[in-house]
Write a structure and sequence with these properties.
Strand order of the largest sheet: 1-2-4-6-7-8-11-12
Distance between the termini: 50 Å
Structural class: alpha/beta
Largest sheet: 8 strands, parallel
Number of strands: 12
Oligomer: single chain
Helix content: 10-25%
Strand content: 15-25%
């Protein structure tokens, strides 16, 4: 089974899936439905060639909630370029665990999240910064984030977190660049490459009612080239926010 490049694990517990992956070190594409199990005690699961990862939590609060985090903790997969996460409704992402996992993915280009009530802290944990030794060089190759199957917490703080994630990847605070997603130029400080975020997918237009500064930032992002897509629609007209 060592030569397997694509694997789908749709039935069984996390331990069953992880055990099956041990003899597949070359797998490049993995789709896994997560179902919580006891602590994984077998050999380490190391997937050094994994490029595309699709994680779906089982549709159950009891067995699904936190099951994706369990897989991320028990498997080493350092180089995914595309990650799709579908999380149990109402559970939302675990900011600390998911953030830790995402911060390790230095080659990730495409992030797709399906979750309810994503909080501001989740987005702020993924903010890219170049501030010397205190910089947070998170997801430096991120070019697309898709939230069209997600909802945010119902407040301007959550919207502010999303804008905070996008802003430095489009403005001088993380440098500027041009180019198509596959040919995006690097923005760099010594040892810290970053590319321009190209596209954001949302379910509906952002409604910013009480924060004029935040509204102005979002308008500026849209007016200066950020591609905003609603659902499966074409890129939104720049006049719409």
């Amino acid at each position: 089974m060592e030569g397997v490049l694509r694997f789908e694990a749709l039935d069984g517990t996390n331990n069953v899936h992880l055990s099956a992956l041990i003899p597949m070190p070359l797998v490049e594409s993995l789709a896994i439905q997560c179902d919580k199990s006891r602590k994984f005690t077998q050999d380490a699961v190391i997937l050094r060639n994994l490029r595309n990862l699709d994680i779906t939590e089982r549709f159950s609060i009891d067995y699904g909630r936190g099951s994706a985090t369990q897989v991320m903790r028990d498997a080493e997969m350092p180089v995914p370029e595309a990650l799709r996460m579908s999380l149990v409704p109402t559970a939302g992402p675990d900011c600390q665990d998911f953030g830790r996992f995402l911060r390790s993915l230095i080659l990730l280009e495409n992030l797709i999240i399906g979750a309810d009530d994503i909080p501001s802290a989740f987005f702020k944990g993924l903010v890219y910064s170049q501030r010397g030794n205190k910089g947070t060089n998170v997801l430096p190759r991120l070019q697309r984030i898709d939230l069209h199957r997600s909802t945010l917490e119902d407040n301007d703080e959550a919207l502010g977190g999303l804008v905070a994630l996008i802003w430095p990847r489009r403005t001088g605070s993380a440098g500027r660049t041009t180019g198509t997603p596959r040919r995006a130029k690097r923005i760099s400080t010594p040892g810290v490459p970053c590319v321009l975020l190209q596209e954001v997918c949302l379910e509906a237009p952002l409604v910013i009612e009480h924060d004029q500064i935040l509204l102005n930032q979002w308008k500026e992002l849209c007016e200066k080239g950020l591609s905003v897509v609603y659902g499966n629609a074409e890129a939104v007209d720049q006049e719409s926010y």
